[in-house]
Specification:
The complex is a heterodimer of chains A (751) and B (673). Chain A has 751 residues and is an all-beta fold. In chain B, a hairpin with a 2-residue loop joins strand 2 and strand 3. Chains A and B meet through strand 45 and strand 50 of A and loops of B.
Chain lengths: 751, 673
Amino acid sequence: MKRLTVFFTVSGCLLLGSLRAQAANRSGLLQEDFPFQGACISAKFPGHNVAMKGLAIRVGNDANVLFDTELLRMAAGWTGGYITTKGVALDGEHGVHPSIDGEQKFGAAQLPGWADNRGEFADPRPEPFGPLPDDWAHWDGLYVNGPNVVLAYTVHGTKIYEQPSSAAKDGQIAFVRTFKTEKVKEALLMAVCEAEGATGNAENNVARLTTPDGKVTAVGGVDLPKGAGLEVLGNRVLMRLPQGAPAATFTLVIWSGSAVDLPKFAGFLKPAVVDFAKGGPAHWPREVATKGVLETSRTPDGAYVTDSLTPPIDNPWRRRVRFSGLDFFSDGKRAALCTWDGDIWIVSDIDDRLENLKWRRFASGMYETLGLKIVDDVIYTSGRDQLTRYFDLNNDGEADYYENFCNRYTSTEGFHEFVFDLQTDKDGNFYFAKAGPVNPGGAGFQRIAANAGTLMKVSKDGKKLEVIATGFRAPNGIGVSPTGQLTTGDNQGTWVPTDPLNWIRPGGFYGVVDTAHRDPVPEFKPPLMWFAYREYDNSTGGQVWVTTDQWGPFKGELLDTSYGKCALYLIMKQEVGDLMQGGAVKFPVRFSSSAMRPRFNPRDGQLYVAGLQGWQTEAARITGLDRVRYTGKPVYMARDLKVDKAGVQITFTQPLDPKEAVDPQNYSGRRWNNHRTSSYGSDDYSVADDNRKGRDHLNITGARLSPDGKTVTLSIEDLRPAMVEIIKFSLKAKDGTPINSEIQHTINAIP
Amino acid sequence: MRKRLCQPHQKGLRTAFFLAVAVASVVFNLPTAHAADKPEPGLVVTFAALAGDTVKATDVTVLPNVWLYVPVGKPPTPFLPAGKFSVEWAGFVSSEIRDNYTFQAELNGTLKLEINGAAALDVSVKATNTAPSKPVRLNKGTNAFRLHYTSPAEGDAFVRLLWSSREFGPEPVALNALTHDTVPELQKAGQLRFGRALFVEFRCAKCHAGPAPDAGIPELTVDAPAFEGLGSRRNYHWMARWIADPKSMRSTARMPKLVHGPKAKDDAEAIAAFLASLKSDPAPKDAKEAGAEQIEAGRKLFETLHCIACHNTPGTTENDPQKVSFNHVREKFAPGGLVKFLLKPEEDYAWIQMPNFKLTVDEAARLAAFLESAADKPEDVSAPTAVAVVERGKKLAQTTGCLNCHTLKIESQFKTKSLADLTPDKWRQGCLAENADGQAKAPQFNFASSEREALRAFAATDRASLARHVPAEFAERQSRILRCAECHGKFEGFPPFEAIGGKLKPEWMKAFIGGEVAYKPRPWIEARMPAFSRYAEGLAIGLTEENGLPPRTPAEPSIDMEAVKTGRKLVSANGGFFCASCHAVGSMAAMQVFESNGINLAYTGARLQKEHYHRWVRNPLRLDPASKMPVYFDAEGRSPLTDYFNGDAEKQIEAIWQYIRLGDKMPPPVEPQ
């Protein structure tokens, strides 16, 4: 242990939250009792210093650091606050993201935190988004152990663990970075901090920077391995670890203040890293019990009912609950749900009666997780920053290791660059979608980075990412069929005239020119269907295929949910040449919040739908988890749809009253087109006259019934391709049961 | 900028109403374009003045809906006296599919409704709502509709018909569901209305004195640009040309040609010279020539304010005769005069159709620079100042009738027959002579033959209608003349004109139309509602009564502070509908606006009719299919939030109303932590 010219001491890591921090936290948006929060976060210096995928880490003594998981740099350290609550997923404001809140003490430029193998810090990326090349630097993940976070990453083959903390004495606070390294494989050079306009020097493992205004930033190294040392290069402090340096645990101490306070530090630090590999104490050992409510709504035929799994909105941590991803463990009695706020909840005792639901918090702090998938009973989430895999190392019911499963996609400051949903195919590959960086206000886009507005696939091992399709705006949910067929929704806006349901073909382009990522922009092929914006879908949810026998007569069919309209639709498909087309019929049930993430439970075979209230929706509650349960009663609804030259064929689940079925008075319809342009959305235009605004009335001239009584063929005057066509019917089944409903479909082609 | 009145067969039906059908068709889609004889929008409405049960007189018109409000002691139409009356609405009600509907009414009087010949409602009610009818099965397409109403013995007469179905709660029957086949009586009654409208629009009573203005309908007080100080506002040369033949300069001019014969040009110049001598403080002249930047800024402002609703665009070939052109603007206005005019158009002419946009001086200067940049260069002709000429002009002004419309504190020596003396046989002479030769010295209005016929039809009545103010008809006439529907329903963010009357409280509407509301309800819209101060009250009351609503908002009980607490929670993000995501609440800005701005809720209580508010919140898409406002409640009136009032939608909506009624005293919908 070397003597230091300036001595530092640890006076105990007292968690003294400042009044400001308390004020911010009283809003319930940020947690005081959890050590980190992921977000895009701005620091005040040097220069434009934004961690696109940042972790704001509480390090005690009212101090915080900002770690950038893409550039592997400690972007800033500050005291006196935490982060601001600005942002779509925090206070709800559009077009902004959080900033560090308080007095910044040190900062590192928005450049790689570790130099390349030539000792250079130049940013090698084609654009300032996405991770550094793997063989240079890889973000492995983080461990949570009580109030401590241990960052794990690999630089030029050398595994590094780092525990940020702080020390306080005599009114001064120092930032402490304790490293645990294995034997250094290749020489490493780390950027510690820099100060604008500063000059300085380093000797005896202490580096000092002094700015023209007299502010001093000092960095001390304690227990550095042999050959390691601090350097000042220009206005930056660097730490060098020579090739072959032995495995070590050592510390860097960073302090800044006025020169007169510099001598206040005396003593030295004893490096220590918590034993992170064993996991730490539970943060949320308490269970929240809720009682579900059966039959909150039912279809008129009584075939389907909804049951509400009451969410843990009232919880001891006053944590906001907004479910954004859902999947079941293999026993079907437990499910995991992620939230937009970055938590994971596990609910257990899901049974028929739902009387004893138990909720546990499993993880927290993640950056806008909007998708969740369980594979082999291990939870994965998709977030703005990465796909994350969670490990509970000590089996206490909480995640201790948050592994970066794949962060090979870009994320900019754009508030609307959501990462949506997480699904797997039969081979175990992962799929998710990413929104375009829509401008605040909704029209047009901010800077488009490589993965904006794309559908992506990640290999089973997380190592390979590929873009499957492009041209999306806000594809909130995706679906993967048992055979691997992909579907997505999208939301009305620039280049999206109304919400589509896309039948994905690899390499396809789905309409948004700004996010085509190809030149020339590929030909646009129409989606499976366009939704009537006002009536059917103004903001899409997700899709799911019926994979169970217990859910009525629809096994093998595709279902779609509307986030905005809080609705569930059966999707009726027809293949016409190389195009798909089809329509939707609504299951008239009601959800307790939006209908965003549908998933079948492998145990009871029923459909569960999670949702939240976060942007424009008819959802009345902040979140909900509902079960759509088949009661076993006969189903009375449309179930299939085909268009040909004879007209529109609608097949019902039951034979119809023949007299009613063949009377055209019992049918009516409308149709219209929307115009796909660079403007936001579209007005409705006549199908007959593309220049005329408005909707056309359908002239239904005849109705014929098939011999089995289940299929009606409607003769429609001037039947032709239309983006949106609604056919309403007021019928009776053969047994007298009324069938008052409608279908909505798209005609891309008439075979 | 007069829009030509409709042709003689016009039926007093609102122009805006026709527009409404286009808009409303998305709410309620109807079979259209099937029948060869396509029914027309609205219902045929036959009013009958009654003495006991005996019909004394009738009047026929077309109205958009079964909406009527006649305050006690007021006439139901201009052509019938006040007193007991009956009304029959006839035509068709349409359904898009064969389905069941129920009908009910807000009513004072007796009502009998027949659909397809069968009685649906038969009630006599004193100022309340009727019970809903039994379900009535409507066929797909048109169904014969007949509703007979008789005014009550006491109180204001009113009726508003509502319908409901499986899919929606009680609401006025959709406008495009009501149609009629034309009937011969409409032709005659329409001609009469047209004649009366022409009579007031052309200010005939200014020369042919009829009822005293304070005893007549408001339009009898319509003025014309004041002559005081006119010489400082208008250029001599323009005035001379205008007086010589107004219609040659603007085809829609109402001012007649008053100078005739070989001396006409001299006479016009003399009058202009006299008017040019009437000086007041001149407007400050622009110190410097407007630069390209200012002209461009003016062009943008011209677009923003939607001036094209009433004006042809300067510098283009647009030449709509119904719109006012700016070609003469430099010729017309004295230097600096255009800016002064734009700042306060009503300064010298209270009933001017040009509204007050409350422009800043800079804005007015920019706009003027743009308008002048494309206008014809004026000829440099200065006004004759010779005393003899000016005096001759003065005499002419006094003797040709100028001063019957234009004010100036000298005596008008123009005399003609009073209205009472103008027996119907005389309505073929003078102003109404078939050709100019026959008009001799009379003012020349260049009426079309259909207009002359209409005026004669009006002449044949007792003309008592000039003293019968029916606000709904006033609003119909004036909104057409003011071209309200050229912006409303046409430009983004402008509520359709026909949606206004049943929506806004008349008190607030009057203040808003009159330019007395200090805030902008939709601050995100660049355009602004200009002030039509002289018209505000008449339009507000007329549009309200036209919708079957009382001209004064009925008083509400004092605010229920317990309900306010619930309402506040319901508006909040915490357990409520999070209305505050798109609506500002007082000084608290909206939190998550995404192409979905909502109006500050603190304004709502003063703005909206309570019933409209309830219907709007219950299902916004029924009122505005393009609305981004979510539909939270189902057709059965259930709320998804079951924690309040057991999920009773109406009670929850009412609790929010109580909270909203606090107006600028609304506490923000954020729970104290």
